[in-house]
Write a structure and sequence with these properties.
The complex is a heterodimer. Helices cover about 35% and strands about 20% of the residues of chain A. Chain A is α/β, with parallel strands linked by helices. Chain A folds into two domains: about 5-120 and about 215-235, Peroxisomal Thiolase, Chain A, domain 1 (3-Layer(aba) Sandwich), CATH 3.40.47; about 140-210 and about 240-385, Thiolase/Chalcone synthase (Peroxisomal Thiolase, Chain A, domain 1, 3-Layer(aba) Sandwich). Chain A has a ten-stranded mixed β-sheet with strand order 3-2-4-7-1-8-12-11-9-10, sandwiched between helices. In chain A, strands 5-6 form a two-stranded antiparallel sheet. In chain A, helix 4 (about 90-100) packs across helix 14 (about 340-355). The longest helix of chain B has 8 residues, at about 30-35. Chain B has one helix at about 30-35; strands spanning about 40-45, 50, 65-70, 75-85, 95-105, 110, 125-140, 145-155. Chain B is mainly beta. Chain B has two domains: about 25-70, no CATH class; about 75-165, no CATH class. Chain B contains one helix and eight strands; from the N terminus they run H-E-E-E-E-E-E-E-E. The chains are: A alpha/beta, B mainly beta. At the A-B interface, helix 5, helix 6 and strand 5 of A face strand 4, strand 5 and strand 6 of B.
Amino acid sequence: MRKVCIIAGGMSQWGVRQATLRELFQEAGKACFEDNPMVTNKDIDGLIVASAYTERLATQTHLAPLIAEHLGIKTRSVCARVELLCASGSSAIIMAYGLIKAGVADVVMVAGGEKLNTPQKWEAFYSQLCSVDHDYDGAHGLGLPPAALAMVAKLHMKKYGTKEEQLAMVSVKNRRNGLNNPKGQFRECIDLDTAMCAKVVAKPLKLYDCCPLTDGAAAVILASEEKAKELTDRPLVYIMGTGQCTLYNASANKVDWTSWEALRIASKKAYDEAGITAKDIKVAQVHDCFSISEIIEYEELGFCKKGEGGPFVESGQSDFGGQVAVNTDGGLLSCGHPFGGTGIRQGMEIMKQLQGRAAKNVEGAQFGLTHNFSGMIAAQTVLVYGREK
Amino acid sequence: MRGISRLDGKYAVTMDLYPPQGKEFTRIQPFFDNLKDGRFTTTKCKDCGKLSYPPRIICPQCLSENLEWVDLPKEATVLVSVVEEIGVPVGFETPLCLAMVKLDGAFTFITRIINCKPGALEEGDKVRFVSYEVEPFPAEFGRETVEIKRYYFAFEPVDENKRK
């Protein structure tokens, strides 16, 4: 099996954008090529596009050939779309990784994004009813979190003594880290008081505990090691391991809402493939769609003991200078969350961190991790990246 | 010429909030017929005994098609609840009350809580199953559109003082 590298990454401006979905993809694609002038659209033999709400919000299926056409890409190995809601981007990277590893493709662009802000805002919330089990959970009005995550937060606070202030500390940290990403949706620091006094969305989650609705796209290029050596002169960053686990989908089949077994399984597989443990990860981009999720993810990814996610953020262990710098470019809370774009933005930031060219670098990081959960905490996706020694 | 997006002043498409119903559209119509009769039911495998929810046509454990309909308990206990104040989908009231409930002797799931005074629901409260008619399914048969009646369910507080 061949080794697979990530050799370029770029993103459009994220936020409430005066642009269509295809325009966002064009911006991201161009930014990706500009990131690595040694690779052009002529070098790409495959394109995998990640987008979840393209049918409902952009009224477009068969998206990948459209994006290929707009980016001047003529594919011969693969040209298709991947959807796993919030993990669409990371899923697309896993697919491209597998195809390159197996020799089906050589150089693949993975591009993901969403246009979530429509003329009437409710449309995006409405679409979320079809991302959970539409017939048995969506029909109760349960869209994506916040409702479910608000309940998870209450349960975690009750069981482990996690404090509302600790939730807010995740938001404060990630908003501060958002200054590192000039293309993120928010670039304003907040203090703990502001976070604590913000408008309630669903108790105990307040405005800054929740990621926003975001328009945006991101793109990366993966290549076989052999091709990567031709197409970049930067340190090679490899995909070392992946894991994607689902154990249930409907709310009725969850065993424990605060203990995410699927994430433990997915991360163990990814760590094992990479031949490392959680302790080796010095930089991570995890799925902070809500502040509480980042806290639980510290625990399930093995960064701290179960139940100690709150104290972990409070003691600065997830910040620069701590055990593992988490969401170094601001995460979903600051960059925003155009579902298909998120995993790709995360991969791009890890690539830059491991190449030592991020806006703010974690010194000496050899391994990095990205994580998404998707649906109603129904699937968990983990990738481990590592740089050449 | 007026496009469909202008209907009702609503942008773009609407979403059907409820499952397809009618024997022409689903193989689990008994679930909905039972809702109409005030029964909360699901499927159980007659071969391996696995109780499944949502109801199935194939047992997810042993893949048998030999399933039967069984009644679920109609009372549940609230484990945790949430009142959603922002971002409630059109078609549901704001604030929207949702609760994670433990169905007596069975599974835990999230349900909408209706007929409840805002903020009245507490952990440990008993809630009970309620079924009701929802928007019909406008089905085309040849040149005719026939409205198939549909049913859905939620839970409400058992305590009268907490009910609206």
